[in-house]
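Dissemination and training. As part of the outreach component of the grant, students in the summer workshop were shown how a complex can be specified as a set of sequence lines and then modelled as a single object. The example used during the hands-on session is reproduced here so that future cohorts can follow it. Participants entered these lines:
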Amino acid sequence: MKNLQQLEEQEERSILTAPLQRRSFLQFAGAGMAGAALLAAGCTKDDGIVAPPSAGVTLDFKDDFGVLNYAYALEQLEAAFYIQVASAPPTDFSTAERTYFADIQFHEIAHREFFKKALGANAIGSLEVNFAAIDFRTRAGVLAAAKTFEDLGVAAYNGAGVRLVSNDFLLAAGKIVSVEARHAAYVRDLISNGSFANTEVVNANGLDQAFTPAQVLAAAGGFIKTKINVINL
Amino acid sequence: MNIVNILEEIEKVDGEIYERLNPRRAAMKSFANMGKKISLAAMPLALGSVFQKAYGQTTPTAIVDVLNFALSLEYLEYHFYNHALNAPTPTPIPAGAALSAITTIRNHEDAHVKLLEGALGSAKRTPLVYDNFDFTAGGTFNDVFTNYQTFLKIALAFEDTGVRAYKGQAGVLNRNAVLTTALQIHSVEARHAAHLRQMVAANVTGASGLKPWIAYAANGNDTGIAAVNPVYAGEQNTTQLTINISGIATGVTQTAAAECFDEPLDKASVVSIANLFIKTGFKL
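and obtained this result:
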């Protein structure tokens, strides 16, 4: 593991010192910065002065492993959220809601563990989450957060598909994203019946959202304490 | 619909879109400005020509075939819902939330039809009209438009098929610019399916336990409607990329393992399902 990290760091350095390589470098940090985690973003023009990533995890989008780690990070976040919900469900949750939220919990745990296994030695470490902004005591608070996570997950997978090279990985992501969309529709209908695919998430062309990693990590960053470095995006 | 927004959306996933469209960025920007003047009705067509300019010359036949295949399925869905809503004697869908949901879904299918037609341009297939379909499937579902329960069952079968059909074409679309659009349709179909599953659970006799996601059943079909078995064949799978999902963590049962991954359906299987509802002479 240590060797791998050193290898990664070496690679990062060589990329950082390559003067003409086009890249964007993003740093995200969660603690105490809910909703505004983006520290530095979008250097499409190389100026050669970028501090190398120091701590946290690195999502290196140079290949499919980077995309899978990105998905792994999101699944870690979702799983952690539903585990916390299931550990102490809101008192105003119905029996059916408790059951289905337990279902979703195990779906997200399965997704998380699937990516961890598929990535093997290439997997990033475990992320530390920050759910201070979520009201876990009330149904409304839990549903609002679940809606955010599920819609974001759908948009993230939709946007990341084109980054994958392997047909197998693309299909695996496709198998997961439609389940996330089912979760999203279910949660939305609980908040307001009929909002499963309303204009917040589906545009006039009948298309769901597709977000770039930068958009997704900016939205999710507030919930993640671990610093996420993004390279080769 | 705003073509500038669309181009900006594409730019987010394809940074070279402007270069593809025209090596001279300035020229492209002037086109984007022109887009503001194109009427709403003409937009899908205009968009199609933009895509053709960007990607059309190198669009492989395989991609065109997939888009036409998707278009056929969207015609099927659109005409199904549209007839239920607009027939001289409309399907008895309860006013309020139910009617509103079916209308929303119909409108999305309509939008998908227009989008795909526009993207295909001159390569688009002959449109399928309502009269080309037989939604009773040769008499299997004679009350499809008069019995709300039957209508919901078929609607769900179409949506779950749609999700599987798009997924089944992912490999063909991989590394192509239309993949993102296909994924964006795919997740909308999944949202429809989840909502219809809730409608089926609430209204169809014996289906109260149906979940928004596809639960484990030995033959893949968790709906209890034997006539739609082919729609769910393979959904019972619990192995992904050779990884056994069942038991991958505490609480991840066989059911959870089957639920948390939706399975694709190959083109031939989808075609044979769709053809049950298409009249001779128009079958896929």
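Chain A touches chain B through 60 residues (CB under 8 Å). Students were then asked to discuss how this feature might be tested experimentally.
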